[in-house]
């Protein structure tokens, strides 16, 4: 019997599952949603907007950046973060729509 997924499709599914695991944390999802509404934000703007301790916000930002979900750049002493994968907002919108119907 032939497997349902080819190796290439299986790798895509594995990558998608890994991405969803990273986004499964409510604070990380909130950061992605926030950066989808703003072009760029500093760590300070993010933790203040989401009412998070600075250290916690920084840990989540590092995780999201390490997974390629966010990008960052430095201007002077400030580090700005932005969303690298805007299509993730479609995922968030779909999940929100799904949850509304439950």
- Which CATH class? Mainly Alpha
Fourth CATH level, the homologous superfamily: Winged helix-like DNA-binding domain superfamily/Winged helix DNA-binding domain
Terminal CA distance: 37 Å
Pairing-aware structural class of the strands and helices?
Answer: alpha+beta
Strand content: 5-15%
What is the total tally of β strands?
Answer: 3
- How many domains? 1
Looking at the overall shape, the CATH architecture is: Orthogonal Bundle
Pick out the low-confidence regions. Answer: none
The count of helical stretches stands at 5
Shape field: globular
What attributes does this structure have?
single chain; 102 residues; alpha+beta; Arc Repressor Mutant, subunit A; three-stranded antiparallel β-sheet; 5 helices; 3 strands; 61% helix; 14% strand; globular
Describe the structure.
The protein has helices at 7-23, 26-37, 43-49, 54-66, 88-100; strands at residues 41-42, 70-75, 78-83. The protein is α+β, with helices and mostly antiparallel strands and 102 residues long. It has a single domain, classed as Orthogonal Bundle (Arc Repressor Mutant, subunit A). The protein has a 3-stranded antiparallel sheet with strand order 1-3-2. The model has no long low-confidence stretch (mean pLDDT 88). It holds the Pfam family HTH_20.
């Amino acid at each position: 019997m032939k497997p349902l997924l080819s190796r290439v499709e299986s790798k895509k599914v594995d990558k998608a599952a890994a991405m969803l695991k990273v986004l499964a944390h409510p604070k990380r999802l909130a950061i992605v949603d926030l950066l989808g509404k703003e072009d760029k934000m500093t760590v300070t703007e993010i933790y203040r907007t989401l009412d998070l301790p600075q250290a916690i916000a920084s840990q989540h930002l590092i995780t999201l950046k390490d997974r390629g979900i966010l990008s960052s750049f430095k201007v002077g002493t400030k580090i700005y973060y932005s969303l690298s994968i805007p299509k993730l907002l479609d995922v968030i919108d779909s999940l929100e729509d799904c949850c509304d119907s439950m």
